[in-house]
Predict the structure.
Amino acid sequence: MTFDYDLFVIGAGSGGLAASKRAASYGAKVAIAEESLVGGTCVVRGCIPKKLMVYGSRFPSLFHDAAGYGWQVGKTSLDWQHFITVIDNEVNRLSQLHINFLAKAGVELIPSRAALVDPHTIEVDGRKVTAEKILIAVGGRPIKPDIPGMEHVITSNEMFHLPEKPKHIAIIGAGYIGVEFACIMRGLGCEVTQIIRKDLILRGFDRDIRNEIQQGMIHHGIHVIADNVVAAIDRVPEGLKLTLSDQDREPVVADVVLAATGRTPYVEGLGLENVGIDLVPSSLEGPGYSTTSAIAVNEFSQTSQPHIFAVGDCTDRINLTPVAIGEGRAFADTEYGNLRRAFNHETVASAVFSSPEAATVGMTEDDAIAQLSEDGVKIYRARFRPLFHSLTGAADKTLMKLVVDAQTERVLGAHMVGEYSAEIIQGVAIAVTMGATKKDFDATVGIHPSTAEEFVTMR
């Protein structure tokens, strides 16, 4: 049978872009369909604009800290319109850059939503095309719980387009998106209230990291309401009133409310039912949610249909940009490059761009104990004031932690809270991935004076 394309990719986010370009480099005839801006969640409404907001939010603390070193900083103010406009301009510049990369690679871009008609046919841009293989890389989307008044609430998608800076923003959710936006908006000068349904933020992270970040956020003026959920949201003359499940607590009134309560695979309208692709429950959980589904795949990103594949957040494995890119490239190498390989989901490093910042790689302490027993794990931990703050007077602390196999001395996990955590853990992740032992860390000479040297001097 003759097909229009060797490969048709649905979704031009991180995974789809990586897979399409690599497949084309092997000589495949490739088309990619995208209904929104090219670049996906990361470029358009995630990593990039969010990190730019993080940078912008940190200037006030730098102005304050400069006084400890003798600098005289005058009155400062934020031009909100300039701030959001330059971020949006950068997003559009990067999106166009990715379009150029596709053209250079010989990949045909179709600016339209695509859906599956049958196992080899895709409906896109008002026509039907065929492909020998299909890759689904549609990513995820933010989801709101089913709570009365949720129509008044925004998601992370709208955070980059707020017409003016909120005076008071309430954030529902304890995940990294809610935590990061809470810290961003507080740094930009907003009053921030964060409502979480358990005692701690960042479920799944090491408990020491969760504690340290939450205490740091509270220290920086974020009001954290723990062990509560929002029961209802009503518009009142003062703004939006959030009624809490703890009826003894006063309602929270804010002018903007962000629901950062999770993301779900964006599989609606893809026509998966037309081709019999198996789904599995997604990891999204909590009160007010209906069951959401992810595309089931094997270690080679292959669905229940052998010639249809899926990568990235729509598979709900590890929802990170570098993971989607790695999965996409592994797929292309396997199917078109005569290099059969599966992406390794072990020891994937990640960061939370909060204030204080955090990063992690490998096992948490609880995970290691569950696997090896409490006696089988050794913990090395250091908490100290960084040298930078010896003159600023700030109470910010740095926490660094190693989780070690007591028998083999292999470093199973490394965790950090503090300045430059992401940059430091990125290097440490190489050692953890290679199976370095605590003796290897001890034998490494530290760079002094630096925060990072603590990872090789902990005893």
